[in-house]
């Protein structure tokens, strides 16, 4: 048990990054998801570049970029900020595909009925299209949320003292017990991931109200 | 039941299509359509598949933009507006203002699946017409009662039969009190035994309303009962029009004769039986 306390201390860093980068990822997912469907070609083009760049390069390289390359260009970010921005932008890019495809998956008849009732674009988005798309987004967001959690295990590579970092320190001091240390890391990750799964299921159940 | 009312012959039209054309690429779907609909007039559109009936309705509902020509609603341009003395393309604000006088019921209902029945009907009253919630609810309940669904208000669309769904959709459109209502094959997606209940509701509405109606339908008996005028479309044009008896019993053009003969061969007996059962 003597390993658990330091590991949990490290977990705090992961959770902090998880929460803030999730918020950023949501923001980016919706901005870019709507951006991909925008009326103006420029907007569609810019969002496409963002999405493809962040999906097409590895998260690790993006982390290194934020932490090592930006300062070289006289943009100073803390390790924490770099981790949050890299994870948020990366998973925001993936999330935007979820947003875009689910918006498109709402039947066209819903838009047409809303127009026939003289609803304006913001109104029909807010009241008709988004609530239906949201329900379809949840499974996709759920998967990405778990991926994001796992992604936080990379931040020790940019010097953050997260759970993986703590595990490595403990391991070098107690090399004979490394299996136990890694086992604890597994358990802790699993518990957090499972808590997220339950949370997502709760949202899915709530969104399914009234529909058979 | 005689649902027809006297239509003011001299009143200015509630809707006027003027030289309306619509093309998708090279495909000319509507070809210089001129059509006046008078306030309270009930017109039925019949014609072969692909002749442009749905497109004609969708242009008026602003779901589709005309390639050329103009549409006036109650004397006002729909797709155009005046700016500095010139007629320019209408913006969203203008469309929003004029569109409020038009309502539409679709073949596939298009109810909002995430809202219960009363919410479906109230939604636009509250958020578009900005009525106080209590008043919107009262008016919606009244409308649901009219279509015979007062006991289903807290059900969700997925819990209703097709006929019930379509009656909700009719209530939802009616409650907005449009000056003209478009019905695009509203019984085509229904099981035959459910057609009658929907046609009954429409007949009932037609009998009391000042509201003009455009009915796109394959139910010839229904068209005959309700319509003041029947229009036959073919190849993107209105080929023949007149009172139902004239169009359905004494067609003049060869194309209409052919259409009616084919139609009777295909649907003839069964269609007549269905409507008879539904309307008794
Ligand atoms: N969005 C579109 N893009 C391309 N072609 C279209 C589109 N919508 C309709 N059309 C074509 O326009 C023509 C007229 O279609 P429309 O739906 O108005 O006919 P309709 O008279 O309502 O036929 P039906 O009785 O089958 O409903 C058809 O040939 C159809 O294929
Ligand atoms: Mg059609």
TrEMBL record, chain A:
Pfam families: BPD_transp_1 (PF00528). It is a multi-pass membrane protein. One of its GO terms (biological process) is amino acid transport. InterPro entries: AA_ABC_transptr_permease_3TM, ArtM/GltK/GlnP/TcyL/YhdX-like, Ectoine_EhuC, MetI-like, MetI-like_sf. GO terms for cellular component: ATP-binding cassette (ABC) transporter complex. It comes from the Bacteria. The chain crosses the membrane at residues 15-35, 74-94, 181-203. The keyword Membrane applies. Residues 11-200 form the ABC transmembrane type-1 domain. It is found in: Cell membrane. Keywords: Amino-acid transport, Cell membrane, Membrane, Transmembrane, Transmembrane helix, Transport. The keyword Ribonucleoprotein does not apply. One of its GO terms (molecular function) is transmembrane transporter activity. Belongs to the binding-protein-dependent transport system permease family. This is Ectoine/hydroxyectoine ABC transporter permease subunit EhuC.
């Amino acid at each position: 048990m003597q390993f658990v306390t330091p590991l949990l201390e490290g977990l705090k860093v992961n959770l902090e990054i998880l929460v803030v980068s999730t918020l950023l990822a949501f923001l980016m997912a919706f901005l870019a998801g709507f951006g991909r469907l925008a009326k103006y070609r420029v907007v569609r083009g810019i969002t496409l570049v963002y999405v493809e760049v962040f999906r097409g390069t590895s998260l690790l390289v993006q982390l290194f970029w934020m932490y090592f390359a930006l300062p070289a260009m006289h943009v100073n970010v803390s390790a924490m900020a770099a981790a949050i921005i890299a994870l948020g932008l990366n998973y925001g890019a993936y999330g935007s595909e979820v947003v875009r495809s689910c918006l498109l998956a709402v039947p066209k008849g819903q838009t047409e009925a809303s127009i026939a009732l003289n609803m304006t674009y913001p109104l029909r988005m807010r009241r008709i299209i988004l609530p239906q798309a949201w329900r379809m987004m949840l499974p996709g967001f759920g998967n990405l949320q778990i991926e994001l959690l796992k992604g936080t295990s990379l931040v020790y590579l940019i010097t953050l003292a997260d759970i993986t970092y703590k595990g490595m320190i403990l391991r070098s001091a107690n090399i004979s017990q490394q299996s136990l240390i890694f086992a604890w890391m597994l358990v802790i990750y699993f518990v957090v991931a499972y808590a997220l799964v339950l949370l997502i299921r709760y949202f899915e159940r709530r969104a399914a109200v009234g529909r058979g | 039941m005689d649902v027809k009312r006297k239509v003011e012959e001299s009143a200015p039209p509630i809707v006027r299509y003027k030289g309306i054309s619509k093309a998708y690429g090279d495909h000319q779907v509507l070809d210089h359509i001129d059509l006046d609909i008078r306030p309270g007039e009930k017109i039925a559109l019949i014609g072969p598949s692909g002749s442009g009936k749905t497109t004609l309705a969708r242009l008026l509902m602003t779901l589709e933009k005309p390639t050329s020509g103009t549409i006036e609603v109650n004397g006002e341009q729909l797709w155009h507006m005046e700016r500095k003395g010139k007629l320019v393309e209408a913006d969203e604000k203008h469309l929003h203002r004029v569109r409020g006088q038009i309502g539409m019921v679709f073949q596939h209902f298009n109810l909002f699946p995430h809202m219960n029945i009363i919410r479906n009907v109230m939604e636009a009253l509250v958020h578009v017409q900005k009525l106080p919630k209590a008043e919107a609810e009262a008016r919606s309940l009244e409308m649901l009662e009219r279509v015979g669904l007062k006991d289903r208000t807290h059900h969700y669309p997925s819990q209703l039969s097709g006929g019930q769904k379509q009656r909700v959709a009719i209530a939802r459109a009616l409650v907005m009190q449009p000056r003209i209502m478009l019905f695009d094959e509203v019984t085509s997606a229904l099981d035959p035994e459910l057609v009658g209940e929907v046609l009954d509701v429409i007949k009932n509405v037609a009998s009391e309303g000042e509201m003009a109606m455009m009915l796109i339908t394959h139910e010839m008996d229904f068209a005959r009962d309700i319509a003041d005028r029947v229009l036959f479309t073919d190849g993107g044009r209105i080929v023949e029009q007149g009172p139902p008896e004239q169009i359905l019993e004494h067609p003049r053009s060869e194309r209409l004769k052919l259409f009616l003969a084919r139609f009777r061969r295909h649907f003839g007996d069964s269609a007549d039986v269905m409507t008879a059962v539904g309307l008794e």
